[in-house]
Amino acid sequence: MTAARVLRYDDIEPMPWRNGQGVTRTLRAMSDVGGWALSIATIEGPAAFSVIPSMQRVQLAIDAVRLEIEGDEVRLNSGEQVRFTGEQRVTGASAAVSSRVLNLMYADGAPELRLVVARTVPQIPRAAEAVVVLAGSLETGDETLGPLDSVLFSGSPDHSRDFAGRGAFAVVLPRS
C-alpha cells in the first residue's frame, strides 16, 4: 500500500541555502528513507550553488533561469532541465527578477532518479515517487493541489491511485 503526503508550498518555511546565497523550501529531505531530496529554490540574483560531493543533481526550471556549469552557460526555460554532479561548480541567476527551480538530489550509488514533466493527468506514471504541480491543479483523494503544491508517496506502488485535474506536473520517477 502506498502512503501519500500532501505538502502545501505556502506552508513550507523557506530556509537559507547551505552557502547563504539563496533560499529553498524542502519537500523531501535527504535524511528521509530512500536517500534522495527534493526542494524548490528561489534565485533572485547571481548565486553560487553549494558544492555537495558524492551527489547527483537534476534541476528543472519552474521559471526561466540562467546557469553557469563549470564555465558553460546553460539557459533553461520553464519545464526544461539539466543534470550535473554535486562536485561541479554551478552559479545560477534569475532570467527575470526572481526564478524558482525544482531541485532533485540523490547520492552516488543510490538508485538513479529522473524528473519528467507531465502535461496531462493521464501522463503521470503510477510509479511516481513525487508529483509537484507546476501549473493548474491536481486532485488526489480529498485534496486539491495548486501551483507548487506537491504529493509525496512512500511504500509499494499503488495502482489504484487516481488523479484528476489540469495543468503541468513535475514527476520524480525511478530511472528506467
Which features does this protein show?
mainly beta, single chain, 176 residues
Would you write up a description of this structure?
The chain has 176 residues and is mainly beta. The radius of gyration is 16 Å and the shape is globular. Strands 1, 12, 13, 14, 15 and 16 form a 6-stranded antiparallel β-sheet that branches. Strands 2-3-4-11-6-9 form a 6-stranded antiparallel β-sheet, with no helix packed on it. The mean pLDDT is 88. The chain has no helices and 16 strands. Helices cover 0% and strands 56% of the residues. It has strands at residues 2-7, 15-16, 23-28, 36-43, 47-48, 55-61, 65-69, 72-76, 81-85, 90-94, 99-107, 113-118, 130-140, 143-145, 150-155, 163-174.
The overall pLDDT average reads 88
Major β-sheet annotation: 6 strands, antiparallel
Rounded to an integer in angstroms, the radius of gyration calculated over CA atoms is: 16 Å
Total beta strands: 16
User: Cα distance, first to last residue?
Assistant: 22 Å
**Assembly annotation:** single chain
**Class by helix and strand content?**
mainly beta
Encode the helix/strand succession as letters: EEEEEEEEEEEEEEEE
The fraction of residues assigned to DSSP E strands is over 45%
| Helix run count | 0
Helix content: under 10%
Shape category: globular
Weakly predicted, low-confidence segments: none
